[in-house]
Task: inverse folding
């Protein structure tokens, strides 16, 4: 069923594919993010209750959604790395974890900066905030674990197990505001219901969500390519590639 | 799929299923403790199957809607008291301090403090809760009949 995926387990093939994707995704993500944030932060109407403070939603929500999205992709890579023991999947974990950690940090920071003027507090130990903090620790844990062993294979395996196991946290984050009573409000955008946001505010938010996704893709391509070069440095095709790059630079 | 991969697939899936089950059971057992606050009904009628009520003097959080017309302010200090409601019983909160900007009648709030008697709380912190609806003022006026008008008279900065 997945035979068509087989060539991409080969680092050289994957490297070329990632280069192609990166060339498209990087400029596209910058354009989309600029459009979304400028529209959202500068040209949407103020909220009837929160005034201009709500505008931070255009950074907060995309970062929070994709902190979970990045984790899901990282866990899929970890699952493939564990079961099929594909090298490139192991490197993908290391490529994605720091991106996810930064997204989570952005979500937590913008949330705190939003919470202070609106709720009256930077932080409260409710289920949503706490589970998102745990997500940050999971990302940091995966990063630390992967580099904690002298034997790289052991590190990859340990990090993969942690990444797969941590998936349990994703539904907890998502449903925390429904299962328990929290200070954090419910979801504004859900797949099945009409979003509880005026269209004039919703469009820039959706564009920002797309922008964060594209940026995640672009950065993953970039980081995974670097990882491939590092791990495959002794291969002839890498040497040849590096030489070509040096000639092009001169 | 070769047998070794199949074995690993089963092992990883097995670990994941068992762990989800474990975490699920744990969260179910801790269900009431994960809640951030008591609702007024829970405070008065008791919490959970065994109807456990908090004791007087206990530190707790209470969350509910501010009852319209119940906000009473002291003229000479920051002291304020108001009633909270969810579906039935009413709980009174006393507070001495600055309320958050979003505090208003009909708004959801979460207060932290100590229980004075069965239905009164002396709060040390009042936080505003807002919902997930965002809309421009014109839409809010049309949909909810809410109109926000700027205060007619404002004092210049620096006057007492």
Result:
């Amino acid at each position: 069923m997945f035979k068509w995926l087989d060539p991409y387990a080969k680092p050289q093939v994957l490297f070329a594919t990632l280069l192609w994707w990166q060339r498209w995704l990087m400029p596209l993500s910058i354009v989309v993010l600029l459009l979304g944030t400028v529209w959202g932060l500068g040209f949407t109407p103020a909220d009837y209750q929160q005034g201009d403070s709500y505008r931070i939603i255009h950074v907060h929500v995309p970062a929070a959604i994709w902190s979970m999205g990045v984790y899901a992709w990282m866990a899929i890579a970890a699952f493939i790395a564990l079961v099929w023991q594909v090298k490139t999947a192991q490197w993908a974990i290391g490529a994605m974890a720091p991106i996810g950690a930064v997204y989570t940090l952005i979500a937590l920071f913008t949330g705190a900066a939003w919470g202070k003027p609106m709720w009256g507090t930077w932080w409260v130990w409710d289920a949503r905030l706490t589970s998102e903090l745990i997500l940050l620790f999971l990302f940091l844990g995966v990063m630390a674990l992967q580099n904690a062993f002298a034997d790289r294979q052991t590190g990859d395996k340990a990090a993969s197990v942690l990444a797969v196991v941590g998936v349990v946290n994703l539904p907890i984050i998502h449903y925390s505001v429904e299962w328990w009573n929290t200070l954090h409000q419910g979801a504004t955008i859900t797949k099945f219901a009409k979003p509880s946001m005026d269209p004039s505010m919703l469009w820039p938010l959706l564009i920002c969500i797309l922008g964060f996704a594209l940026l995640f893709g672009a950065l993953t391509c970039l980081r995974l390519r670097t990882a491939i070069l590092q791990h495959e440095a002794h291969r002839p095709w890498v040497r040849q590639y590096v030489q070509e790059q040096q000639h092009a630079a001169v | 799929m070769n047998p070794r991969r199949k074995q690993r697939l089963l092992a990883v899936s097995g670990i994941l299923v068992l762990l989800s089950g474990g975490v699920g059971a744990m969260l179910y057992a801790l269900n009431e403790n994960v809640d951030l606050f008591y609702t007024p009904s829970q405070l008065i009628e008791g919490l959970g199957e065994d109807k456990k009520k908090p004791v007087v003097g206990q530190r707790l959080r209470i969350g509910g809607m501010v009852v319209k017309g119940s906000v009473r302010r002291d003229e000479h200090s920051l002291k304020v008291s108001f009633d909270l409601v969810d579906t039935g019983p009413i709980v009174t909160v006393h507070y001495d301090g600055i309320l958050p900007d979003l505090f208003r009648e009909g708004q959801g709030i979460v207060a932290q403090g100590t229980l004075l008697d069965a239905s009164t709380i002396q709060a040390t912190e009042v936080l505003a809760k807002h919902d997930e609806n965002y809309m421009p003022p014109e839409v809010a006026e049309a949909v909810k009949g809410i109109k926000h008008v700027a205060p007619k008279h404002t004092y210049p900065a620096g006057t007492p």
